[in-house]
User: Fold these one by one.
Assistant:
Number 1:
Amino acid sequence: MVIQHVAMEGPARIADLCAARGVAVAIRHVYAGDAVPALVGDDELLVVMGGGMGVGERDNPRYGFLSAEIALIRGALRDGRPVLGICLGAQLLAHAAGARVYPNVGRDDEGREVPWREVGWGLATFLSRDREPASAGLKAEETVLHWHGDTFDLPAGAVHLASTPRCANQAFRLGARTFGLQFHVEVDADIARRWVVEDAEFVRAARGPDGPALVVAETERHATAARAAGDRLIANILGCMML
């Protein structure tokens, strides 16, 4: 079961790799009025996608589905159901598990606190690769697509899986079958180019007036090569979730 928050952020490669394993994919388009289920069935995986809204907006009537999703994730954690959260999905997972979610900030050259939005293709460092099945076959650093302004603390008991200099908590495992990824390994070049157009204001806020052109150029350089590592990570995680 996939929870999709906005039209442009679907499961993409996650759906493709589920299909390759014979796993049926049912998408709940909550932005279009689909109801959030009350629970995750004992034969289901829960995948929660990204979106431009944030955990801090869960009380906004416009995003009434967020509180229902948090309840769904908490129930899945309680019942031991496998969960994968991507970007906003990882933030909702962290919140549901009791961790803090908040704007990612840093310091500028004059020491002032400023938003640190990560947007575009960049390296993530993968940790504990020798002990983590989800990271098997990955290099110490892999290029991934970042597209976020918020971050989270690791939930209690979580295993830290990946980081970047500007956002330490990029990926985590909770228990054996639950994972949160702040970055987007499901996205290919065509989707990345679509995001640049449809989310141009956010790109400019993160990267400046030339941000869209910069991200398009990065996409041409990195997207094809990044797909192999992204597919491996997704496949590894699906294998863990299906145990």
Note: The chain has one domain: 2-241.
Number 2:
Amino acid sequence: MSDGLNSLNQWLQDTIFKPLEDKKMPVMEHLVELQVRLTRAVIITALVFVGTFFYADTLVQWLRIPLQNMFVPGSLAWMPTDLPTVPFVFLAPAEALWQNVKVAGLFALVAATPYILLEVWQFIVPGLHTQERRFVAPFVLLSALAFYAGVGFSFFFVLPFALNFLVSYGVNAGFIPQISIAQYVGFSLWFLMVFGVIFEVPLAITLMAKLGWVDAPFLKRYRKWALLGSFIIAAILTPTPDPFNQCLMALPMYVFYEVGIVSAGFFSKKKPATEEPVVTDVVAATAGNGKAAGLSNVGAGDYVGVPTGRRP
């Protein structure tokens, strides 16, 4: 079994890792390659956008689901809430069309993310060492998965809860709900994107710990500042000024900070052990020199001058 793993490792080294070693390309060649890869990424994203724009109305309908429904994990189904039917209005002639373009563009960018990451990986991999490639490749994959997990968590759990609370509050206050399509789409997409980024916090902390920038004791000392910073960042990122949405963003952010502390404890860069000075040897050598100079009988309170080298 071990022979087979060694053979596979050797094959990967010879056929994949070694051919990707940095060839010391000139700066202009790097810029040309960057331009080519960016062009490919833009073309692929544009082609995906053409497909998503044809289904923009369907995507907007899916985006409206969290407004009057709650997701039940036990049955894996959406259940309608007690909210009345909330009509959508548009306040400008091109508002509805622009929201479809915005939704289609965001979904196209999310769908093309794996290809974009592939182009980024192929651009930076020649400048990395073998051990760095082995670390960066799983990190990029986990980053994409964490972002998708954050978007899914926000869509199925956070967004329905926030919308139900806010709309119910207005209805109970005696107001008639009529929501602008632009305001609703902007609110929902912003929530989805922010939670996708929040789910990247543990990976970012793990990367900094792997590079030796932070460690678990350092992160534990700044827990209270992390909690305060989470609420400050949430206050800036929330699309509404109410403290309810601020708590919905700040608390998961701080929880992921704690997860990052645990992860940093496992993946922190090992510091080289420092050699302790050998004090005993120095003392012994000093005592030997003193004895050789005839100073062994000097009392503890006597002053010892600098030897002149002359005999008394």
Note: Residues 278-285, 291-307 have pLDDT under 50 and may be disordered.
